[in-house]
Design goal:
heterotrimer; A mainly alpha (108); B mainly alpha (166); C mainly alpha (378); B: 166 residues; mainly alpha; 6 helices; C: 378 residues; 2 domains; globular
Chain lengths: 108, 166, 378
């Protein structure tokens, strides 16, 4: 299977997913949607890591650095989601909104 | 190219299109709850990509952690902050045009880069079960990062609890 | 000899006969070999999937019968006895009733989410059947990561429950969905941790690998008998799994006396039928996992000589475990939400972590002692 699909395909898919996620985190109003964009970006990075492991590793069994780092990224994504959503809920409690454009107490 | 090659490419294209469509839906859907469900679809698509890359363990971990934990966390947050969802008339903030332009440029740049760089490909086949070697690597070569990540996760747990507590 | 293998191992023999028959037929038609591999893979896959899709709902129907009969007996009633002998045709009548009911979509629901939710709840349960080992060599696939796959499928159920609860725009459904999600993610942790104990003992996460490791002592080397960790791990697994699938005494998400029907309040007809199907199949899957992990799955006396016995052993153990869960239902009151969360996080999780540490220390001590003794002998 892997000989039939060039590495470029996976890298392009990851790039497209990353850009979609970046747009989500830059352009959405809802803070939770911003976090969802970040999750998309992390997933795109993971696709890259795994694709490079699969195509580039000289010994895919013994040298699994790509998989290991993808696992670390998944762990960090879980940590980021937990902290981020806790912050969103705390802000919602005190400000009664999750719109990132209205959370501007420090602006002036 | 032989038949299996064509089938592989078609399967890849199908999964890629579905994943990207779910990703776009995540970003563009107005209702945040629907966006979160589309995000779940994206996670499944990425898990399918991992399966194609013969990373079975990672694919299952993706479903277990992303779908089973992170997506549920996000859905919980959507439920807890649902008061403002109905009153919203636009889901996109005022700087979306700038963001879209910059990201379009970024994507074109990345795409050209991906096509230009001569990637070093070894193309070794994966023979046998990768999971035992992965476990060994995590507890020998990568022991220190593994422990650091574990401590980070614990700190996050406590931190999230303290922040979200009333 | 052929007749003997056919009698002792009917399903696998018929499967192999069919497979070689198709291969022979295709070869005589002059199909190239790599095409034969693909076609045989597809045909056998379709046969196995069809078998699962037929067996699973039938099993679910008779589980509802078993539940009603058993619980009725526990409450000194008779249970269904009108349709067919001992009420055996009752499940079929129920199914016809489900299928002929009007499909109601209440006003104000989030329509796509409302319609998708029952499907999302059922799919992971059906997928779980693909890795369960029903007998010697009788599993659709024998994944290296079978156990992890089952746990991942179990955790997927939360999404469907959330969709049903939130898409209904109904406060009972909402509260039920919230409770279910909180309960599932809380009790998933002790469930996974108690499974880790068995993984430590077996050194494998393939379901077949774990079952084969329990072949000692005349097919009775089950991990349940590994004192003291086996019974404790089994008990924790059973509690956490019962909570994970929202059954009594942990049925707060669909507590009918407070929440009407919880997250599936707004569902009727076949959509409700799908939730019902998922609930019973979940009970079966949980019991099958417990039977495989702690009671040796298809292991038992004489299973090497007569593989067909394995199927009987597997289903016997699973049905006894289902009976234990029904016994819970017949005898225990529902617990409160705060009790549920306190019990899960403050008792079950630390206890399971301690159990894992103890098991690991025990295995380490055993290995060191073994090395010391062999060193002494050599």
């Amino acid at each position: 299977m892997i000989n039939d699909i060039p590495l470029n395909y996976f890298l392009s898919l990851a790039a497209a997913l990353f850009c979609i996620g970046l747009f989500g985190s830059l352009a959405r109003k809802n803070a939770i949607a911003v976090l969802m964009g970040i999750e998309l970006m992390l997933n795109a990075v993971n696709i890259n890591l795994v694709a490079f492991w699969r195509y580039g590793s000289p010994d895919p069994i013994l040298n699994q650095a790509g998989i290991v780092f993808a696992l670390f990224v998944i762990t960090l994504a879980a940590a980021e989601a937990a902290i981020g959503l806790a912050l969103v809920i705390a802000i919602y409690r005190s400000r009664d909104t999750v719109n990132v454009e209205e959370i501007n107490l420090l602006k002036w | 190219m032989d038949l299996f090659g064509v089938i592989s490419q078609l399967v890849f294209l199908l999964v890629a299109v579905l994943t990207l469509a779910a990703g776009l839906a995540t970003v563009l859907l107005r209702n945040v709850f629907h966006a979160a469900l589309a995000l779940v679809g994206t996670f499944f698509g990425v898990a399918a990509i991992y399966l194609m890359l013969e990373a079975e363990f990672l694919a299952i971990v993706q479903i277990l952690v992303y779908v089973g934990a992170i997506a549920v966390l996000i859905l919980f947050a959507v439920m807890l902050t649902r008061g403002m969802m109905q009153t919203e008339d636009s889901n996109i903030n005022s700087q979306w045009a700038w963001a879209a332009t910059a990201i379009g440029v970024l994507f074109v740049g990345l795409f050209i880069l991906i096509l230009q760089v001569p990637w070093k490909i070894s193309g070794q086949p994966v023979v046998g079960d990768t999971t035992p070697a992965l476990g060994t690597a995590l507890l020998t070569t990568y022991l220190l990062p593994f422990e650091v990540v574990s401590v980070l996760l614990l700190a996050t747990l406590i931190g999230a609890f303290i922040i979200a507590r009333e | 000899m052929d007749i003997w293998t056919l009698i002792t191992d009917p399903f696998v023999t018929i499967y192999n006969l069919l497979r070689s028959g198709i291969i022979g037929l295709l070869a005589s038609l002059g199909v190239p070999p790599d095409w034969i591999a693909l076609i045989v893979f597809l045909i056998m896959g379709i046969i196995v999937v069809t078998a699962i899709l037929i067996v699973a709902p039938v099993m679910m129907m008779y589980m509802t019968w078993l539940e009603r009969k058993l619980v009725a007996r526990m409450q000194d009633r008779v249970g269904p006895n009108r349709v067919g002998p001992f009420g055996l045709l009752q499940p079929i009548a129920d199914m016809i009733k489900f299928l002929t009911k009007e499909d109601i979509v209440p006003e104000g629901v989030d329509k796509p989410v409302h319609l998708l939710a029952p499907i999302v709840v059922v799919i992971p349960v059906i997928l779980s059947f693909s890795v369960i080992q029903f007998g010697v060599g009788m599993g659709a696939v024998d994944l290296n990561l079978g156990l992890l796959f089952l746990l991942a499928m179990g955790s997927m159920a939360t999404i469907g429950v959330f969709m049903a609860g939130f898409g209904s725009h109904n406060k009972f459904a909402m509260i039920g969905g919230m409770r279910a999600a909180a309960q599932i993610i809380s009790y998933e942790i002790p469930q996974i941790l108690s499974v880790v104990v068995v993984v430590l003992l077996a050194g494998s996460i393939s379901l077949n690998g774990i079952i084969e490791k329990q072949s000692g002592l005349f097919g009775l080397g089950w991990y349940f008998f590994y004192l003291p960790v086996g019974p404790i791990a089994f008990f924790i697994f059973l509690l956490a799994a019962t909570a994970e699938i929202n059954r009594v005494p942990f049925d707060l998400p669909e507590a009918e006396s407070e929440l009407v029907a919880g997250y599936h309040t707004e569902y009727s007809g076949m959509k409700f039928g799908l939730f019902y199907l998922a609930e019973f199949l979940n009970t079966f899957i949980i019991s099958a996992i417990a039977a495989s992990l702690f009671f040796g799955g298809w292991q038992g006396p004489f299973v090497q000589q007569i593989p067909a016995l394995g199927i009987a052993y597997f289903f016997g153990k699973t049905i006894i475990l289902i009976g234990i869960q029904l016994w819970f239902r017949g005898s225990l009151p529902r617990i409160r939400v705060d009790q549920l969360m306190n019990f899960g996080w403050k008792r079950l999780v630390p206890a399971t972590l301690a159990l894992i540490l103890f098991t690991a220390a025990f295995l380490w001590a055993y290995r060191v002692l073994n090395q010391f003794l062999t060193g002494l002998g050599g």
